[in-house]
UniProtKB/TrEMBL annotation:
Organism: Streptomyces incanus
Biased composition (Pro residues): 1-10
UniProt-listed InterPro entries: SirB1_N
Domain Protein SirB1 N-terminal: 53-219
Entry's transmembrane regions: none
Family label: Belongs to the UPF0162 family.
Pfam families found in the cross-reference section: TPR_9, Transglut_core2
UniProt superkingdom: Bacteria
Protein name (record): Transglutaminase-like domain-containing protein
Stretches with biased composition (Basic and acidic residues): 11-23
Segments of this protein annotated with the region Disordered: 1-23
Length: 303
């Protein structure tokens, strides 16, 4: 199946403008940013489609029970609705599809990467009034329900002592990729160990900022395009959106310049390499010289 194709240049420019405005607003809206990413990827997603996706998230929230109560009760209600009745989940094959990183496609297919499925959980739960937040574990994104500040004891909160039923849980973690399964402390430790080979650090359980979630989604899209040289256009627009975020790694400018050279846009790539070299020169002159050498090599490809 052919992966989505981006819209015409004029539409792409308008989407970038709106993305930048939303990302720099006082309270960036995660669903809006994800849908603008989807529109940048898929030229068939128009304004009516963006509105329909927001309406669907509202409708899903309306199907939840009114304020179920404890974090575990919220987790159960979300799993029953989203994981069981609606069938949202993921499979290994979803990592091979660009659609798995696009919110409107995840809502349509009920399938996606852990982070996009988590966005669905987050947005539905938030609209329903749940105490919810994202947790960007290394290699696997999950959702927390309960007190976002309870990270220091989250390992214990995820596996409460069955002998102390009178003590309410402050926080539970769920895995939307597995249909909303509640994670025990051991489950969380295994996820982290599998991704890093290191033990779980409580700092890994800190609530994820919406803009960090968006950057991670764009990184996933770039990773998808990296192994598909014929889709360097996808890597380029994902980099362009990443660079519009108010806080992003400076090296993205370098990556964009090198991508332009790989795409055969030698002059533009060389100009960007030289501009980045000037930034680097302030802290690392030898590195700046190496980057200037890359720029000269790119210009030489025109001869």
């Amino acid at each position: 199946m052919r992966s989505p194709q981006p819209p015409p240049p004029e539409r792409s420019a308008e989407l970038r403008r709106r993305f930048s405005e939303e990302a720099r607003s006082e309270r960036p809206d995660l669903a809006t940013l994800c849908l603008l990413i989807g529109a940048a990827a898929d030229g068939t997603l128009d304004e009516a489609g963006i509105d329909a996706a927001q309406i669907e998230l509202d409708a899903l929230a309306g199907r939840l029970p009114y304020r179920p109560g404890t974090p575990r009760a919220w987790a159960s209600a979300l799993r029953e609705l989203l994981g069981e009745r609606c069938g949202f989940h993921g499979t290994p094959g979803d990592y091979q599809r660009l659609e798995s990183s696009l919110l409107h496609e995840v809502l349509r297919r009920r399938r996606g990467l852990p982070i996009l499925l988590s966005v669905v959980w987050l947005e539905v739960a938030r609209r329903a009034g749940a105490p919810v937040f994202g947790v960007g574990l290394p290699g696997h994104f999950v959702v927390g329900l309960g007190e976002a500040g309870a990270t220091a004891d989250a390992k214990q909160a995820a596996k409460p002592d069955p002998r102390d039923e009178a003590t309410p849980e402050r926080q539970v973690l769920v895995d939307p990729f597995e249909g909303g399964r509640v994670l025990t402390g051991a489950d969380t430790e295994l996820l982290v160990a599998g991704a890093t080979g290191a033990p779980l650090n409580p700092s890994m359980l800190a609530p994820a900022d919406p803009l960090d979630v968006v950057l991670r989604i764009l990184n996933n899209i770039r990773a998808w395009a990296e192994v598909r040289p014929e889709r360097s256009d996808v890597a380029l627009w994902a980099l362009d959106l990443s660079l519009l975020l108010p806080s992003r790694p400076a090296k993205l400018r370098y990556e964009r310049a090198r991508l332009l050279v790989r795409r055969g846009e030698f002059l533009d790539g060389a100009d960007e390499l030289e501009a980045y070299a000037e930034v680097v020169a302030a802290v690392d002159e030898p590195a700046a010289d190496r980057i200037r050498g890359e720029a000269r090599a790119a210009r030489a490809l025109l001869n």
